[in-house]
Amino acid sequence: xxxxxxxxxxxxxxxxxxxxxxxxxxxxxxxxxxxxxxxxxxxxxxxxxxxxxxxxxxxxxxxxxxxxxxxxxxxxxxxxxxxxxxxxxxxxxxxxxxxxxxxxxxxxxxxxxxxxxxxxxxxxxxxxxxxxxxxxxxxxxxxxxxxxxxxxxxxxxxxxxxxxxxxxxxxxxxxxxxxxxxxxxxxxxxxxxxxxxxxxxxxxxxxxxxxxxxxxxxxxxxxxxxxxxxxxxxxxxxxxxxxxxxxxxxxxxxxxxxxxxxxxxxxxxxxxxxxxxxxxxxxxxxxxxxxxxxxxxxxxxxxxxxxxxxxxxxxxxxxxxxxxxxxxxxxxxxxxxxxxxx
Length: 342
Known about the structure:
Strand content: 25-35%
Number of helices: 11
Largest sheet: 5 strands, antiparallel
Radius of gyration: 21 Å
Mean pLDDT: 94
Helix content: 25-40%
Number of strands: 20
Strand order of the largest sheet: 6-7-12-10-11
CATH architecture of the largest domain: 2-Layer Sandwich
């Protein structure tokens, strides 16, 4: 291994994943520039190792010690990169904290990302999952990103179409995971801001969307209050936020389910399908607040699985599988996990 790269051996990842799983990396590198990645590619031994690109570890479930090289993306920096009549273009490095970046844009008077406040993780990891919450998704304000290609050693620019964004998904999860390391992300924040109050709980706490007193900061503050009330802080109890995706079904299937369970919450999608609240499904199966050893289900939001102390990744997976089986048996729906299992 190259001394100039400050490669570390047998590094604990417990503080680098929000589940707080105690696992080790065989080799570890804090990446502070694209030159570090080029040096990895140039080193035959390092390049041949299994590779894990790590941001904030907030969409990750470690199931074992990682037998290869963990690349922790630590580059920082944010700035206005361009502007035109329609938008302000802001660029942030991969290692920037996502929530801090969102609040920075709001502090500068630029709206757009406020519905995504307080989502844990880093800017570089955000496009991988196409993060979303409270009626908004990252792709709505995404402009482009730069990523390092480990196959070619080049830096490549991806536009929105290149990223193939979908519900909690992107090309970075769909094809050749680990091929790219996102270096920076650029967002187009509209000069003519309009609040997104489509989420009922959000609309109930704020003035009408046409109220001129409504600001991006007010929306962000409301989102933060809702999240703090409903979701556990990863700094206090290990979790990765929403553990399951909300299942998407056809209108006919939703109508049938709704007839059987009238209180089932569903959200109409632009393509005519419906999305069903996975947390409600889990709660109806009696899992809310339950524990199996140190693996458990959050008391305030059944969609969140938690590590109550010393749970292993395997124990979290075992709990999730029991939940999947119960939801399938009762509703005929299979829940798909959001985190990446490693």
